[in-house]
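Example pasted here:
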Amino acid sequence: MNINPILIIAGEPFSIFSEILFKSTKKDKFKKPLILIGSLKLFQRQMQHLRFKSNFNLIKQDFLKKELKKGVINIIDINFKFKKPFEKISNRSKNYNKKCFDVALDILKKHKIAGLINGPISKKHFLKKNFYGITEYLAAKTKTKKFAMLIYNKKLSVCPITTHLALKDVSKNISKKNIINKVILIKNFYKKFFKINASIGITGLNPHCESNYENSEERKIITPAIKELSKIYSKIYGPFPADSIFMKNNKSKFDVIVGMYHDQVLTPIKSIYDFDAINITLGLPFIRVSPDHGTNNDMAGKNLSDPQSLIKAIKFLDQR
């Protein structure tokens, strides 16, 4: 088989991911084979609990492409003991998640893979204080210095300059260099994958792009970064007030809106498109995509979760 497979890390064992994976593979047929990294026994028990029927093809970490099958879930079994099909997320899953990521990163070094998808991870239990998020975790693991989080929808995408930071830490982590590097990654990504010169709007940090002190972030950092970028690229605009850039007549002018912090741009994009978006990490030596939702432990095992974002993630890689 010459088609490069899509690699999927199961994520938190007691999240909604198993449910949306089962729903995704039942609802849609994909051209490329899927390789799941996770506990086979746990998935089988969760399938039984959710009353799903699906076939697994057990493969080894050093698989051959001819062993892969389409229309079923190829799985690399991470043997780990779980007492129940669903329970509360805790520190107990940390070693399981680490093993899944270690196996995935090893495969990505040795095989040609269409891309990596990871299920949602509890930052509290897995990352603790070592990393802000999986974006930063994978960047560190691959020694990637320049990277960006892009929440992608074909009509409008967003990128936060800072990610999972407390608001009190945002201003001191914004820099001219960081803005420039992330916009360059976005421009290159859109040119490579979509053959377009992306139109990018950049927000300010303060309400109305103003502050009550002279050396505001807009004046000191954001506007100089935009001026520097405008020397290299066309279609770079801003800074715009975050409270109005997402209005209908404004957002239609852009392919991507770059904001200064996580909720400044993720709150409006999720309000506009619900789950019709995916999280793409730019700058890694491979394409990494994740569904744009969290673990949602309270919904796990109830068969009520929407698979749309995972379907979008798989389709994005399936069409590459």
User: Anything to note?
Assistant: The chain has two domains: 1-144+284-320, 147-278. The two ends are 16 Å apart (CA to CA).
